[in-house]
Design a protein that fits this description.
By secondary structure, this protein is mostly helical. The protein contains 4 helices and no strands. Helix 2 packs antiparallel against helix 3.
Length: about 110
């Protein structure tokens, strides 16, 4: 039995969107994680109700991967923690500036 060329073209056209799918970007924070989890869980329930067990399993794997990425996210910083971090950074930069100014003064003092 010979396969017709138009059948191959049609199969290729239908398969391309599946190959072109990209992974979603990394969630930015816990709220993004929860929203994406909710979407995946809803899609899993829908696939289960339609009897699409393969689709449900794929969504389950995506959900597990998402949960692993979300666990790896650093905890959200509060406003006070961000302020403290910035203040510490400013103190560090001022100390570096003072050292650089001192080096400049000493170089100018050495000039003939």
């Amino acid at each position: 039995m010979r396969i017709k060329p138009c059948f191959l073209a049609l199969a290729w056209a239908l398969a391309m969107p599946a190959f072109a799918q990209t992974t979603p970007p990394e969630p930015l924070d816990a709220a993004d994680c929860k929203a994406q989890e909710a979407v995946l869980e809803r899609d899993m329930a829908l696939a289960r109700s339609r009897g699409q067990m393969l689709r449900r399993r794929e969504l389950g794997e995506e959900l597990a991967a998402l949960q692993m990425r979300c666990v790896a996210l650093p905890p959200a910083q509060g406003r006070a923690a961000r302020i403290e971090k910035l203040e510490q950074e400013i103190r560090t930069l001022r100390a570096e500036l003072e050292r650089a100014e001192e080096q400049l003064r000493s170089l100018k003092a050495e000039a003939p």
